[in-house]
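Hello,

Following up on my earlier ticket. Below are the two sequence lines again, exactly as submitted.
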Amino acid sequence: MSAKERNWWIVAGVVIVLYALFPIAWIVSLSFKAPADIANGQFLPTVFTWANYSQILTGDAAALFLPALRNSFGICLIATFLACILSMFAAYAIARLDFKGKKLILSTALAVAIFPVISIVTPLFNLWRLIGLYDTWPGLIIPYLSLTLPLSIWTMSAFFREIPWEMEQAAQVDGATSWQAFRKVIVPLAAPGVFTTAILAFFLAWNDFVYGISLTSTSAARPVPAALGLFSGASQFEDPTGATAAAAVVVTIPVIILVLIFQRRIVSGLTNGAVKG
Amino acid sequence: MASVEMKNIVKKYGDGFPAVNDVSLDIADGEFMILVGPSGCGKSTLLRMVVGLEDITSGDMIIGGTRVNDKAPRERNLSMVFQNYALYPHLSVFENIAFPLRLAKTPEAEVQEKVRAAADVLELHEHLDRKPANLSGGQRQRVAMGRAIVRDADAFLFDEPLSNLDAKLRGQMRTEIARLQRRLGITTIYVTHDQTEAMTLGDRVCVLRRGVIQQVASPRELYEQPVNLFVAGFIGSPPMNFLPAKLRNGTLATPFGDITLDPKRGADIGDRDLVLVGIRPEAFDDASLVDEAKKPYGSTFRARVDVTEWLGDSQFAYIPYEAPEEVVEQLKELSRELDSEALRTQAVVSIDSTSRIRAGREAEFWLDARKVHVFDPATGENLTRDSDAGAELTRLAEEQRAEEIDEARASGLTVEG
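Thanks for your patience. The regenerated structure is below:
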């Protein structure tokens, strides 16, 4: 690559990064602004203030925000965990076994994934109220599974297909039952795929707003994105912009941490050396 | 340790195509059996049926006296080395080798001891803590073998274990496998398409063609008394030359002059208008360098040499010849089946490396009539095969093997199970 070409790539890269990160920088800056500063049109706050953060963490918005944070974590982690376990088995079957209806499962999963959430939320609302799942954790975990499972099944079956068949056959010849071969050979090999899938699934659930706002009514199960929408200003003529921005920053942090932690685990090429080199 | 018996084994795939057809094969305890054939002959399928990774359509697979058709691979107590080694990349070399023992819930002390013993045999000591990804091809191959020998399996199965190594390493590993098998004295089934491996490793070699056994015999018998055109063409490198000939009163009229068969061998065949004469390259020589005493056993002819290849210890000359259309077609078909491509009808002739025969010149050659085989071009059957002589060769090979194993066991090198 010539020097000139490289420079162009750098310039383009910087432009793209700026474009992508600018809104986030704006949110961060907003979260540090005092209420009077918010509409002044400047990027940097005139005075840095932690007021917005103290408001959501210890102030009058804390009663709304903190339980929501707890709910979001709990619900999303459980939904992700369940999705990973279920899709691991499903993906293994899809990648390895020959059975009737394999295509049907995959296309159903795809259909579920592209089905608009908004169209099922109303019937779900009624159904949940009838059977007592409204405003409970399971009441959100189940619809979240419908979001996360299709994606997990698709990505994981792609990962499973990458694992050489011989690995498993070798394990079977070495004396493993199918379950042992799966647990001791396939799962460790699929770990990067499982982690990738887990992160994607977690984000999907974490970012959901429609289910969160429609299927909950109290802090018993309300997740953060829904709680954010319910913040109120100091008076009814004031927008809670600062508090919302601070909350948005707080909920972004776990996502960033998650990616940083698992980035190391998502190393492709773990199967290097398994087969001939 | 156990014997392996196959009785009328058939493998049919969904489309009804028999990949393995009516194979019956007895492999004695401690024997090294090679399954060989061109690609698609069913040799790997047969091996995978022995180990249980492939269902058996019909027939009986008997290992150590027990019918194992319906047993899962893990119940058959066999160990297998895969073509691509199938090492577990997330485990260290030590844990890779220990894997079968761990599954069998072997006590830790015993695991340590057995893995160390296997590592000793394969010289893997300094690599035990490394991951397979950091090993060279030959080392990975040895780890795969370590995993196979660490437990007391009834038999070893190898599925083209050396085909991913470069030529030099392949030679080394081949001798290593031969030594190991003799040392452990364990029944071994070895699949390969490489005939050097087949000839050097096997006590007996089973040649397969399109899922059907052609001949099961010691390497020497296969080489000297092949049962048909296919075996004759498959075994030996460079391959046997096939010349069209007319047979009259025990004399073959070939493009390279007349060859008189010895009356004992020629008598049964009778007169035929077209036969194929199979002559190995080393049955020829530069006529000027042949011992006078030997000359009467063969015939001399003059021919123009196309190309010569001097290899230091040997020399090959290529002699083109004319053949009738139908024979050319058949030879092409045969070579296609043997995974090679015969572009022209030519004989490959091995001559002494000191010979001064040059390409493009006419030269005088001698060929040994005692080593000539005559094949029926329609059925491929070897008309001059001496089955008694062949059986004798195989019997000698078996005797030799028994001796070697006894010796190995007596000298205490065998790993006791």
